[in-house]
Amino acid sequence: MAEAASQNRDFKALAAEYGQKYGILMALILVCVLLTFANEYFLTTRNILNVLRQTSINGILAIGMTFVILTRGIDLSVGSVVALAGVVSASLATTSTTAAVLGAPYFAAIPLAAGVLVGLACGWVNGVIVARFNVPAFVATLGMLSAARGMTLLYTGGKPVPALTDGFRYIGTGSILGIPMPIILFAVIFLAALFVLSATRFGRTVYAVGGNPHAARVSGINIRRVRLMVYVISGALAGIAGMILAARTGSALTQAGIAYELDAIAAVVIGGTSLSGGVGKVTGTLIGALLIAVVNNGLDLMGVESYYQQVIKGALIVAAVMLDQARHKAE
């Protein structure tokens, strides 16, 4: 009897461990299987590429958000940075700008560099305010959310930036061997982030700062620099996402990126990264972003109103946070 009870406890512990590690992946697989039977168009090459393309922008933002949340921070400004980087880079990639300023030998690298720099600058400001002046990340990035959106409107006069060059649009509409460029860029960024967090000293310091800031400080880790860097990374990736979005739509819109920060946070939290810091993986963020995109795509294919997508997304976030809290209590 005692032996049977012990085996039962071991089985429950093993099930709980596997559930924590692979629960989100199993959920993604289950949703994909259900949608495959529910709609004949779901498991087609065209639709799968569409899902991955939709995932790319949110996934890139979520990767940057993962770095921030791992250090117990939050970045609410990424949506507005998407818009600001998009309009600045697009303004340097219009046909009128090419003819009037840069002439015929025009290289897309110029607006691309501008978009990344805009994101870097916004992230640097966030990082300085949080790390140097000890302002809560929620407040600092909320301020940048408003400031960046205001700068976007001031820069464009509230008007979209149209007539983008083919060279710039390639990052949003081009493809290599049939794979859309947004997916390729997302894959490259994901692999780079995976390497940084799992195989570099900086990655280890990110986990250390989020897991136990006091112990990290005693160990000689420059906490301010680490916190500054994660916001710079988040800002730079938001700049890249903004350029991809502008290139995909063919014009940079001032209202672009609204509420994108919520989708990014949702992907990170659903993927298992703890809001308490120090726990999480970029692979989980990838699966979380895919799950959100697959659910949205499936609801679209079945003709469900978009309002329900927001309800389901909110339920997923709350459930993920509840599981995270339950895991911490168990520990």
Q: Can you describe this structure?
A:
There is one protein chain. The chain contains 14 helices and two strands. The chain is mostly helical. A two-stranded antiparallel ribbon has the order 1-2. A hairpin with a 2-residue loop joins β1 and β2 (179-180). α5 (109-132) packs antiparallel against α11, α12 (260-270) packs across α13 and α13 (282-301) runs antiparallel to α14.
Structure, briefly:
With 331 residues, this protein is mainly α.
Secondary-structure blueprint:
Layout: H1 2-38, H2 45-70, H3 78-91, H4 95-102, H5 109-132, H6 137-156, H7 166-173, E1 175-176, E2 179-180, H8 181-199, H9 201-211, H10 213-218, H11 223-249, H12 260-270, H13 282-301, H14 306-330
Antiparallel strand pairs: 1-2
Major sheet strand order: 1-2
Any low-confidence stretches, pLDDT <50, length ≥5? Answer: 102-106
User: How many helical elements?
Assistant: 14
State the distance separating the first and last CA atoms: 28 Å
Query: Helical residue percent?
Result: over 70%
From the alpha carbons, calculate the radius of gyration and give it in angstroms: 21 Å
Overall morphology:
globular
- Structure classification: mainly alpha
**Proportion of strand residues:** under 5%
Overall pLDDT level = 89
Biggest β-sheet: count, sense, barrel?
Answer: 2 strands, antiparallel
Number of E strands: 2
User: What is the ordering of alpha helices and beta strands?
Assistant: HHHHHHHEEHHHHHHH
